[in-house]
Structure formats: C-alpha cells, structure tokens
Amino acid sequence: MSRKLSFVSCILLILLLSTWVAGQQIGTSLAENHPKLITQRCAKGSGCSENPRSIVLDANWRWLHTTSGYTNCYTGSSWNRDICSDPESCTAKCALDGADYPTTYGITTNNDELTLKFVTKHAYGTNVGSRVYLMDSSDSNYEMFYLKNQEFSFDVDVSNLPCGINGALYFVEMEKDGGSSNPNNKAGAKYGTGYCDAQCPHDIKYIKGQANLLDWDEKKKVGRWGSCCNEMDIWEANSIASAYTPHPCNVTGLHRCEGGNCNVCDQPGCDFNSYRLGDRDFFGENKIVDTKQKFTVITQFHTSDNTTRGDLVEIRRIYIQNGRVIQNSKVNVPGMNQYDSITNKFCDSQKDVFQDKNDFKNKGGLKAVGRSLDRGHVLVMSLWDDSNVNMLWLDSNFPLDRPATQPGVARGTCPISSGKPEEVERDYPNAYVKFSKVRVGDIGSTVL
C-alpha cells in the first residue's frame, strides 16, 4: 500500500510562496535550475558508466501565481476564486514558477547522492516533505526506465527516519514530457507536472491540463478528479520497516478519474514486508539489515524467457551491507510456503492467508505490471508523512479493526498511536533520507 499524496502541509502565509500547488503556465520570477545527479547504466561484461542527470521538483509544491503578476492562485488549502472560477480560466491565468531547492525545500544533491530533508524553515514559511523525478539528458523530459529482465539498485540511508515517515523510491507510468503535449500544459516535465500513481490521488492541482478545483475540499485538500496509473514501489521505508510492492492498473498511462471510475488500480498492491511476513529480526536497527547504517538495495525483474519480451514472473530483492550479500527474508507465516520474492503464487497465497481481497489478481497480476513496464516508467523519490492513517500500514498494526495477532496485520514495531503528522513534524524536523548510487542494467551487473 502507498499513500504518497496525503503528506505535505507546507503553508506559506505571505505572497511569494505557496505549496501544494501545480499549474500549466510558466512564471518568470525564479529561474528553474535542476540539481544535478549522477546515475549509472550497467551491462554484463562492460561494467557501469556514468549518466549525468538531474532531478526536478513536483509541480504540486511550487508557487502558483497569476501570469500577469504575483497574486497567489492557491494559498494554504484554498483556490483564489477571483482568479480560478473554473478549471479552464484557472489554467489560462495561473503560472508555475521555479524552485529554490535547498533553501525552500531542503533538497540537495552531491555527485551521485540525493538528500531529502523532512522539515525546512525559510524566510517565507515552512516546507514539509518533497517529491522529485529524474530527468533525462535533455533536461526537459523525464528519464524513462524499462525494467523487465533488468535490475535496479541504489544505496539508501534511513537511519534518521522514525515511525510515521516514509522515504520512498518508486516508479510510475507517467508521460515522458509530463503532459506538455497537451496544449494547456506549457510547463511539462521541466516543472514537474503530470504525476499519477495507483492510489488515484485527488490532491493533484492540475490533471490532464485542467485545474482540479471542482468540488474542492479545503480540509482534505482534494478535488473531484484523481490521477491514476500503474505503480511499482521499489522502496517504501523508514528505520523500522520496509516494503516493496507492485500495483497493477487496468488503464494505460495517466487516467483522469472521477467517482466510480477511480476503481481502476490495485491500491493495496502485493507487498513484501519482511516483518509482516513473519521475520521480525530481518530489517531494523541492529537487525540483519541494520538500518543504523547505509546499505544497498537491489531489485531484479525476472521474465518467463529471460528476455525483455517475456512476461514478468518474479520480482526479487537482494541487499548488500558492509560488503556482505544478504538474500531476502523468507516468509514465516502458517499456511504459506517459504517464499522469498514476489510471484503470482506468493501474492495469491498472501491474500488468502491474510484474508485480503485479491485485487492484485483481478487487475492482471505480474503480467499486467510487466506490460506497464514495457511502456516505460518514471523514477520518483520522495519523503512524506501520512495524514490519512499515520503510516500505520507500513510500520505498525493495520487495519485497526483487526486484532494484531491476525496474520498480516502487524507490519512493524511502531505503536498504533505513532505517526501523527503534527507530532512527527514537531518532534523530528531534522529527519532525512539519502539515496545514492542509482544504477540500472542487466541482471547481475549493477553491483561490482
């Protein structure tokens, strides 16, 4: 399960900045300069070569103001109805501006390392969390990843992520240009537009080139439309618990939904969380994968014929820490085999034993995930807290209407009282996640 779009509450009370915004026109108050990030492409027999890239901040965080001046189109949790009376006029009259990545958002890069800081105070207010995407060499489009018969690896430091905070790295089936082929979207990928995921988030301010202000709920900060697409969660974690989870959808690319047609994706997904699956000693502080130290995460996408043309049949996880290769944990749940990777059989068994609806199978399972990967995915890295259910689905007991002793309910050691955004933002403002050494290539090629 992932809930990436319920997280930040950066409220800027004066003119120059306002978060949780997005738009389609381009402002000129601050130049957009993407922080550089070195990644690598790898191949068996020839090793890895550097790919200098950059990252871009999601449009939902950016200042949105009138194209003719500096009046906010959106402030705090409210649209300016004098400007934004309807979706069309709001799109035409409002512009996204550039971002000061380190000062306003706590986002920094250093060669191959990206740091996302949790709370950043600055001259105009406070920012909480962030979401960024990897750009391609043109610096105008997103980098597209095709992961079947490939492996993806990165190093991560989650030592400063307590209960209730999620440092996530994942892939979604976004458009390469961020939707700039739509005539209403002049900003595009360069300004971080076009987000979607399997939760069909309704808090995206602009979807398919139109402002999402109809039926806007100021308390929940959501509108009528959702933004759905296939999602592959490589990594959702803090220092307590972690999970990797494919989420298939029965739509292609970004699907703007409303009402009943938002049930197009497997929102819970088929997750592999070692704690939830019965190994309580595998992941965490001073455990087999020790979250007090940095480690490498390797994810392999195996196909039926060991080529990119075959069906996706297995997603396998390996760790490396202090030079030691650590194979993934094995399932230790009564009624389940000792699975150690995500396969259709694992997912069917997990859903049955945990008494969960098997929407993963209903939405096409791994074969559907593979078809989506064939179309290309965008790399997302984010840091967030959860105003919906306090991240309990990742690191505590969830759902709360089931006993903790029921298989699949306990997901980590965090108490069910933990994870409230107002508390973690107050108590852990200096929390951060660091991602580094991002690599993709042939299976067996990304770790030297």
TrEMBL record:
Belongs to the glycosyl hydrolase 7 (cellulase C) family. One of its GO terms (biological process) is cellulose catabolic process. Keywords: Carbohydrate metabolism, Cellulose degradation, Glycoprotein, Glycosidase, Hydrolase, Polysaccharide degradation, Signal. Residues 1-23 form the signal peptide. It catalyses: Endohydrolysis of (1->4)-beta-D-glucosidic linkages in cellulose, lichenin and cereal beta-D-glucans. It holds the Pfam family Glyco_hydro_7. GO terms for molecular function: cellulase activity. The lineage of its organism: Eukaryota, Discoba, Heterolobosea, Tetramitia, Eutetramitia. This is cellulase. It is an enzyme of class 3 (hydrolase). Its EC number is 3.2.1.4.
